[in-house]
Write a structure and sequence with these properties.
about 0% strand, 6 helices, mainly alpha, globular
């Protein structure tokens, strides 16, 4: 892993401070370049991480019912072979979000387990 140091304005630093443990995930989500409504789900996650959640809160986190319902709809359309190309792009983006969140939750669980063993 590479360690980076950067200069940011004081005002931005205040906004980033609560999410500092989660900043790599926030940056990763921000760099995906969403082109569909999946960006709303990514924004939900970024908003959650900006609250500075505990490791336990991260492992328990789920996206909103709206986001879950949208995913269920896209999966049903996909199963029926009825996805438009835009919906396929959205489903692909949601899969990227899911992958990032799975990695984040695994990291949080590992850190929790490490803290319990100390």
């Amino acid at each position: 892993m590479v360690e980076m140091t950067m200069k940011v304005p004081d005002k931005l630093a205040q906004r980033l401070r609560p999410m500092s443990p989660w900043l790599p995930t926030v940056l990763e989500l921000s760099l995906v370049g969403f082109k569909t409504p999946a960006v709303q789900t990514a924004s939900e996650i970024i908003d959650f991480l900006s609250t500075g959640p505990s490791l336990s809160e991260v492992t328990a986190y789920t996206v909103s019912e709206r986001a879950q319902e949208r995913l269920r709809r896209l999966l049903a359309l996909n199963e029926a072979g009825m996805l438009s190309s835009e919906e396929q792009t959205e489903l692909d983006e949601i899969e990227q979000i899911e992958h990032i969140m799975t990695l984040l939750k695994a990291q949080a669980r590992k850190r929790l387990a490490g803290a319990a063993n100390e």
